[in-house]
Amino acid sequence: MANLVEDAKRQINELLAAAQAKAAESGLLPEAASLAGTVEIPKDTNNGDFAANHAMAGARALRMAPRKIADALVANIDLAGSYFVGAEAAGPGFINFRLGPAWYGAVLSAVEREGADYGRSEAYKGRRVMVEFVSANPTGPMHMGNARGGVLGDTLAEVLSRVGADVWREFYVNDAGNQIEKFATSIDARYRQLILGEDAVEFPEDGYHGDDIKDLAAAFREKFGDAYLEKDERERHEAMAAFGLERNLPKMKSDLERYGIKYDEWFRESSLHESGYVADTVAELTRLGHTYEKDGALWLHTSKIIADKLRAAGKSEKDIEKLDLKDDVLRRANGIYTYFAADIAYHRNKLGVRNFDTAINIWGADHHGHVARLTAALDALGLDGEHRLVIVLMQLVKLLRDGEVVRMSKRTGKAISLTDLLDEVPRDAARWFFNSRPDTQMDFDLGLAVREDSENPVYYVQYAHARICSVIRNLAEDGHSVPAPESIDPAVLETAQERELIKQLAGLPDELLHSAEALDPSRINRYAMELAARFHRFYNACRIKGEAEGVLNARLLLADATRRTLAVCLGILGVSAPEHM
């Protein structure tokens, strides 16, 4: 797949190597190994589109002033047949390169040729990556807090896929442990209240008090009548937990699908317990000498594992002591394994059984204390958790309406659920806003999300796409179709607005790669916003309809390449690309 920015940088390195050899032959430079340097896009492109620092990087080896080296290279550079029309020495020894029509034309050709695949690469080819996200407790409705993790995980998975990774999306179903027992106890109490009366049955103080529990109890009674009243508590709880999960999980799936999210697997925590894998994982940690018994419980020596790793990295005992490291219970005195033990087993399964190269988890920032503990456990198992487990921490979201914080649903009077949110805000807006800046707390303005003007960023980008579609339709009515790239003369695209727009188009492959490397899919939001802004500036400055045939065709092709690239960006974000607005 094409990456014209990297192609230009590569070509600059080749041109400078040839210029160095030629300058050495003529005696302007001493014989030496090829100069190595970096090629960057300067912030101010008035003096050039790319800047190379090879002369400065090679000054010591050549024992010459950087500016003299740069002058010698420029004097011997041959730009014929290249992407460039000019090269000049500047400042202390930079070499600035100016792009020519060949490069601008190559960008448009690449976008048109690759279409919906534009920006893809094979940079991560051969890497198997799991992205686990949302993983909300299945004991109640999906709450609004899951909305951000959902879109971040889904968009990051798409970004990684587009740079060549083999990506697996997974939801971890917490269908075992204390929260499921509490879930069953809550349904049971409501079930017995329905039969015996509310005053006859005390509802547990720490139970789940939502109306959804009452609805499940009523549905359970409707199906089974009063038959379970006489059964023992364990049998009642097993049946009620299974009944509740059978109804809650499909609802969670449908809510997430409404949000545009589908998973490759819904992995059940209970399967780890039923297969004995949790017990096996704890036994392996014991065999490796990382556990000890105290007060009848089995503990992981987390503090020692982390401290040993920090010592190996050169940390002082004083610094380690400041961390106040703690150990973790794996198996309680009653023989029940903790959630942490199951979590270790789950991640051992990811890395040691299913052999993903990298396991990425999207977690709320309140889980940051869990990161080092889980990483330490995986390191203790020999699974290189430090490098293979990657945790993306996201900050909280604050919902605002008319400047006021919103905590409750107007419809139910309860905490905002994902369903509530999507009833009020279009999916496109929700996905766009929740993918913005995961590392900062976010104010989600419900009013802004539904506005149809340039203040709403998703509307602004979608409008650019729809506007181009309208331009293409109108020109088609006049007999003008989008031309083939080889039929246009890119030299006529000479205004600053045209060239800046093409440069932005060229940047998508790099933007996707940087987004994957930084695990920051919000970069695509910012790229798309800038692309839309540059298109609007081009559209306002450069007329298409009524221009001479050559200019009209070139600008029409540029508009279509922008449309295609906007559609790619919106597709990555899971946002629609409307043709009419």
Which descriptors apply to this entry?
single chain, 581 residues, alpha/beta, five-stranded parallel β-sheet, four-stranded antiparallel β-sheet
Protein architecture, described:
The structure is a single chain. Helix content is 52%, strand content 12%. The protein has 581 residues and is α/β, with parallel strands linked by helices. The strands form 4 sheets. Strands 7-6-5-11-12 form a 5-stranded parallel β-sheet, sandwiched between helices. It has a 4-stranded antiparallel β-sheet with strand order 1-2-4-3. Strand 5, helix 6 and strand 6 (166-173) form a beta-alpha-beta unit. The radius of gyration is 30 Å and the shape is flat.
